[in-house]
Amino acid sequence: MAPQRRKPISPQVLRQLHEYYGGKRCVVLNEPMSVDWHHLDDDDTNSTFENLVPLSRDFNLNLRDVRDHPDTPLDPRLDPEILLARARLHFAAWEPALAYGAARLAKFIASQYLHWEIERLAGLLSAVLYFVRTRTNYHLIQDVIMRDLMPAATSGRLSARSRGAILRELANLLADHGYANEALQLYCIVDVLQPVNPSDARDLAAFLRRKYMAFGAASGWSHQREAEAAYRDALAMDGGENLKVSVANSRAWTYLDSGDAHRAYETLHPLFVRYRRTVFSPTGAPKPVNVTAWNIAELMHGFAIASFAAKGKAGLALGRQAFRNSTRLFTQCGLRPYVVRSGYLDVDANVRGQYEYLEHEKLPSRGPLPTQLAKLINMLSQKLSEDP
Q1: 3-state class of 263 per DSSP?
Q2: Is 164 in contact with 194 (CB distance < 8 Å)?
Q3: Where in the chain are the domains?
Q4: How far apart are the C-alpha atoms of 334 and 76, rounded to whole Å?
Q5: What is the pTM of this model?
Q6: Bridge-partner residues for 37, per DSSP?
Q7: How many CB atoms lie within 10 A of CB 143?
Q8: CA–CA dist 174, 103 (Å, integer)
Q9: What gap in Å lies between CA 209 and CA 262, rounded to an integer?
Q10: pLDDT tens, residue by residue, 245-293
């Protein structure tokens, strides 16, 4: 039987790819020279947005040779562990789309070319979910669930710890979109399936911050004392820049949502002053620091709202500057603003009028998840929560 012919990539899909990846840059090298659109599943007729990543032609040809001639050695730079390390470097450099692309490529190479067992794939699966939820694209998230996570979850071959790691990322995804109750339920399951190693201070600190932010939002901030204790514990474990900004953002959104704009302003102002100088310049692109792009963008976003709410007209200049900064970073990195709860900013007509908020509002928000995706997340969560 004659081989199937390569299906041309439609103009619509090409636009999606260029928009998501910021052009045609290799997800390994971050270079635009001699780059192909690589089909993740090796099916040249499946030229969908979800199945394509930009990849250097040399790498693409190497993968074809490995596929067609199994004795051909895989380029060491395409080793899944090396690709995962590359994904983390992309993420640190504020390139979340390239981070996702490198991690997803690693997963497909590990499963299709190297034939890793499901349990060995688990670390790659949770990493893919981490990166894809950060550079939010609902089509990609749904594809990751359908093609990668659901088959692993239904295989019955994932350990409790691996199931817990994936559930943790699903909980983070739900929390990012304002589903605090559902996220908290998953965090409690994670506590049982994948207890965080106390010796891994950074990981434990990050988990505590996430869990207690969801706890506070789910309870209407009636248990803020417990959340504050968790934040203090987290900061005592991990003194890194990123966690400090994460905790400040969590506290500030808590204060704003409970009507204490002055406390939110006081929490964020020192960080706003610091990072507006080190990250933003009048003309150049935002400069990466040892804090995630999303945390810096949210710092500017939250401070803008706190500035006007707490200071009125006196906070107008700083608030506008902060909104411009957050919009630049959200746009550059393809990120989306955080949602404490659905409709939170709808009540802030003053913010819209006084801050010239329209440019910021053009950004796609992390509002309610698409219905079909929400159902898939629920099904996957239930499957991962069950004993195999």
Answers
A1: helix
A2: yes
A3: 10-116, 240-363
A4: 30
A5: 0.91
A6: 54
A7: 18
A8: 21
A9: 22
A10: 999 998 898 888 888 899 999 999 999 999 998 999 877 789 999 999 9
